[in-house]
Amino acid sequence: MKNWIHIALPKGRLGEKAYAMLKNSSYDCPALEDPGRKLIFENPEKGIRYFWVKPSDVAIYVERGAADLGIVGKDILLEYQPDVYELLDLRMGKCRMAVAGKKDFRDPVGQTLKVATKFPNITRSYYSGKCRDIDIIHLNGSIELAPILGLSHVIVDIVETGTTLRENDLMVYEDIVPISARLIANIASYQFKDTQINTIRERLQGQVESKYD
Ligand code: PRP
Fold first, then answer.
1. Which of 206, 182, 205, 191 is nearest to 68 (CA)?
2. Residues with Cβ within 6 A of ligand 1?
3. Contact 158/75 with Cβ under 8 angstroms?
4. Nearest atom, ligand 1, residue 166 CA
5. In whole angstroms, how large is the CA radius of gyration of the chain?
6. CA of 158 relative to ligand 1 center, distance in Å
7. Distance between CA 32 and CA 126 in Å, rounded?
8. Is the Cβ–Cβ distance between 93 and 111 less than 8 Å?
9. Residue having the nearest C-alpha atom to atom 21 of ligand 1
10. How many Å lie between the centroid of ligand 1 and the Cα of residue 144?
11. Which atom of ligand 1 is nearest to the CA of 159?
């Protein structure tokens, strides 16, 4: 009986780019190229099944074994610290985690710094490394609004092109960590489907190297 490989792809541009790399590695799945509203696609000949998953949920599917492999941003791995293997840096979906604020922002030394973010764990660990007392305001999106409306002094967020900051008259104050997409594996799957998983990893690695080295 064939060992199916289940792969969780993040819905959106990153997932589409990741699928293009998998397709080039001969893990194509024609059904996925005309998806409609479906979420699961399979290519029985290749023994491969793909799911479209909300980007921040990919690591949960992989950690709990609903998917053998997943493509996920390093930001999610740093924030949720899932118990998975990180197999490869795909060197795409590049961006950075940064502290940003209004152009006239001055750190209110001696006061608690109010920080709005979708990434409370990354934020806590960054400021605890600086011994800075903070109050985290946990938001789910449009974080840039917080300093503009006086909800926070600064934000900790993803900066990719910088357009969102620029168009809202905000700027980066400190870089925290560079981010890119990673290939992750479920720990048990990596043991039991090691040959198939390593073949996928090697083929993707070959593509990353031919593109960037
Ligand atoms: C992310 C991030 C920034 C924006 C950065 O938001 O939170 O808002 O992208 O990209 P840029 O530097 O290229 O402008 P996302 O699009 O995920 O939406 P959200 O506001 O709902 O989190």
1. 191
2. 141-144, 157-164
3. yes
4. 14
5. 19
6. 6
7. 39
8. no
9. 141
10. 9
11. 12
* C-alpha dist (Å) from residue 155 to 32, 62, 138, 173: 37, 29, 10, 10
Ligand 1: centre distance to CA 160 (Å): 8
Return the number of other C-beta atoms located less than 10 Å from residue 150's C-beta. 9
Cross-strand partners of 113: 134
Closest approach atom of ligand 1 to CA 164:
14
CB 190 within 8 A of CB 84: no
| Residue 168 neighbours by CB under 8 Å, 6+ apart | 144, 145, 148
Please tell me the distance from the alpha carbon of residue 40 to that of residue 44, in angstroms, as a whole number: 13
For residues 55 and 52, what is the distance between their CA atoms, to the nearest angstrom?
9
What is the residue whose two structure tokens read 């960590």?
177
Q: Report the nearest atom of ligand 1 relative to the CA of 142.
A: 20
Contacts by residues 208-213 (CB-CB < 8 Å, ≥ 24 positions apart): 208/88, 208/89, 208/90, 208/91, 211/91, 212/91
Contact 19, 8 (CB under 8 A): no
The per-residue pLDDT for range 100-152, each reduced to its tens digit, is 999 999 999 889 999 999 999 999 999 999 999 999 999 999 999 999 999 99
> Length of the chain in residues, anyone?
213
Q: Per residue in 26-70, pLDDT tens?
A: 999 998 888 788 889 999 999 999 999 999 999 999 999 999 999
